[in-house]
Amino acid sequence: MKAMILAAGLGKRMRPLTDHCPKPLLPVAGKPLIVHHLERLKRAGIDEVVINVSYRAEQIMAALGDGSAFQLRIHWSLEKTPLETGGGIQKALPLLGEAPFLLVNGDVWCDYTPPASRLQGNDLAHLVLVDNPSHHPSGDFGLINGRVAPASHTRLTFAGISLLHPDLLADQPPGEFALAPLLKHAMTSNLVSGEHFSGHWVDVGTPERLNDLEHYLLAAQ
């Protein structure tokens, strides 16, 4: 199974830290945030990773190269301007192939990688959901008997980690578009499974949360 890391965002919420450094390269516990992802993917048995880049792309590509330093093979999907999640994935599909793949938001930290076996049958997606953080108390989706629903009395937050089948993006025109509407449409057809992960997860979206993650990782060391 291949993996894709989403790393094309502008990092606006992380300013001024991202004025001169792209968010994936911000240091956390002695190494860039994206390197934590690469090391975790390697431990999970993944050898090929696609990374989409746009803002300060040359810095990220120069820092990670072809991935050999991490015993991985990195393929780069360069976007002139960010295409949002859906558009970015679609542009990278020729690099990802026709098999399901793991998708990871570059601005989250989590010590869990779902195995490929979680995506079964005709399902188009499998989502990892977590408890709602204080900055997102209303959550995103419901989880009922292993199936993800767009609406529910009890909602959880999408962790930014998922297994996707390329067919989820079939027939979408190229360009900038979001992934969420496609996921919700698949949910209404009962084609999205999910799981609740209760371990440590951080949406590294602000300097304050980046600092909190730094303290957590240093304490764990």
Descriptive notes:
This is Nucleotidyltransferase family protein. InterPro entries: GlmU-like (IPR050065), MurU (IPR054790), NTP_transferase_dom (IPR005835), Nucleotide-diphossugar_trans (IPR029044). Keywords: Nucleotidyltransferase, Transferase. 25% of the residues lie in helices and 27% in strands. With 221 residues, it is α/β, with parallel strands linked by helices. A hairpin with a 2-residue loop joins strand 9 and strand 10 (147-149). It is globular and about 45 Å long. The protein starts with a strand and ends with a helix.
From the coordinates shown, what is the CATH architecture?
Alpha-Beta Complex
Intertermini distance: 30 Å
Indicate the CATH class: Alpha Beta
Give the domain tally. Answer: 1
Write the SSE topology.
Blueprint: E1 3-7, E2 27-28, E3 31-32, H1 33-43, E4 48-53, H2 57-64, E5 73-78, H3 84-96, E6 101-105, E7 108-110, E8 125-130, E9 141-144, E10 147-149, E11 155-164, H4 180-188, E12 192-196, E13 201-203, H5 207-220
Parallel strand pairs: 1-4, 1-6, 4-5, 8-12
Antiparallel strand pairs: 2-3, 6-11, 7-13, 8-11, 9-10, 9-11
What structural keywords apply?
221 residues; alpha/beta; Spore Coat Polysaccharide Biosynthesis Protein SpsA, Chain A; nine-stranded mixed sheet; two-stranded antiparallel sheet; 25% helix
What is the structure about, briefly put?
Keywords: Nucleotidyltransferase, Transferase. It contains five helices and 13 strands.
